[in-house]
């Protein structure tokens, strides 16, 4: 029976080539889009799922509550790990992780330099490998990283440094031109879908930092991971944690500082805390993609239902004959569903080919290695089969019920018309829904693009154009060469100014510290601290509202603050702050010499922080060089040559501040591109469906138009008659779409502290665009129908 139905289905699909083509195109494009969305979302949600104890692993994060705001951060004070290990009995393991990077040098057996490269590194406590089940190929994590100046390498790094990972253990690598690290272990490469892609793990016992015992200093590169004891609930940690905070944050006023336990599997999809040296994809972005995928399939299914119910009239005689010959209704339903599933299966095959073709572009957009291997990920097969079943049933069931329900007497007498074939009102509703979805995406795309333009063009309060950040080594011998390097770079033609600093005014690498102002007690909020020399303000174009820049100094001697810090201190006149004594982290107490106009120190999703800028030579990580924008390429070559001549043992590395700032909005860039692509796809699917639908409607109304023409109706009047109903449906679709689009767009914009005001223009543009395309699409087909000779339609009547 199935074989016979399949044969009949293929014959009918071949007979109605136009109908088949339109449906296959719509379904295959929609399914291909859904498959691409699925494999990307699956990849993002797979992060950290491979760890056996993932449900018990948490990252400790920091939270700062101020009188007029709050701040979240992934970093923690460096003494927090040992204190939690000692005080919180529900924790089975606690491990500190310190991110960083530097120069790694490998010598050959003869003592000659074999390799020199700049690598990301992590100082890791041995307990980290009790929490995370890394596969060790050689060595023991509890012994290999227990002593200072030891290092464990991933298989990839071991082979890069020594040619064969089997030869790595026992060898030595040099780190930062000052420390020899003995290789004591090799572990298997960490999967790409891991939040901690560690390749070089240095023993934490050898980590040196002046803030190791300071509770008031938090760096985004300093993290803490914990493993709950089996059977324990993280909610039960709330009481012990509060007692812990009262014990160690004795100098804070009120509940200023808190810590949360963030689930491991939440890290990759939650960017509220910031993530040092990690790429994240927010849950809202993933949810947006899922919604787009659902919209695509709904649009394709609506096409199928509309075309199938419209085509029902032309198949009424077939149904009547089959019923007279004894076919039961359920047999007819099964036959029509077989046609639908056959068409859907064909569309799936084409969708797989389209997905394979689009995969390189998708990987380039997302900057991720995305696998479409069904053998490697069987869940993809399950998804595709589920999609065929769901789409086939949703798209085919209603048309099958309509067509199988025809009266055989009326069908054989050719008395079934488009009006009484069933589904007329439903078709109109579905057209409205289809175009409402299209209009929502068009409106959303216009708003996203406008917000992105706003983010790119909004003044940040400093000049980031043509400023290069060049990494400088921070060891004591290299620091001695800073002054000479700056002088030589400043003399390069095309260099406007240069400054040593920890980071640009706006940076993802931030340090938060407690401070005092005007009195010995700490203020009731923390400040974002930045280091820069006396030329920092000139290089980045920071404007002073009071006072002057920092004087030339190798150590902290003076302070410059921003307007926000003074507002939080209730200092209304910036001049009143000049000369007031300040101390950061309990350190040197010196005067405030300047107040700079507020600038955005993080992305425009966040409010401006209170900021303190100091000079401290040992904290400089970069030299920022402001260049003539017309000579960037040539100047960059000269800077690299001077740098390499100064630091022959190191590796040159640089980036442009504008590029770093644009990286803040990578998620928005991707979403903007996706909305443009998928809005175009949905428009295409909707309008090929509309073209098919108007074709059937025009065919069914051929005699009506012929009679009207004989009675004197002009071609344009007939075109207007066919157009009016579709334009009315699209108009109603706009009325339905506007409030829905407004809710979604307002919700999305609320995630930005700085955002565009939502005007009516995106909605108007979406309406004009949708109605214009509808009018063009319907007119093209209805004009041809209206031009036919009425004699051809009426000669058999």
UniProtKB/TrEMBL annotation:
Membrane-traversing stretches: 21-41, 286-308, 332-359, 379-404, 425-449, 677-699, 726-745, 760-780
The keyword Transmembrane helix appears for this protein: yes
Localization (cell): Cell membrane
Ranges for domain MacB-like periplasmic core: 20-237, 437-641
One Pfam family cited in the UniProt record for this chain: MacB_PCD
GO molecular function terms listed in the Swiss-Prot or TrEMBL record: transmembrane transporter activity
Chief location bin: membrane
UniProt membrane topology term: Multi-pass membrane protein
Keyword Transmembrane in annotation: yes
Gene Ontology annotations for the cellular component aspect, listed alphabetically: plasma membrane
Keywords: Cell membrane, Membrane, Transmembrane, Transmembrane helix
Residue ranges of every copy of the ABC3 transporter permease C-terminal domain listed in the record: 291-407, 677-790
Name of protein: Putative permease
Taxon lineage: Bacteria, Pseudomonadati, Bacteroidota, Sphingobacteriia, Sphingobacteriales
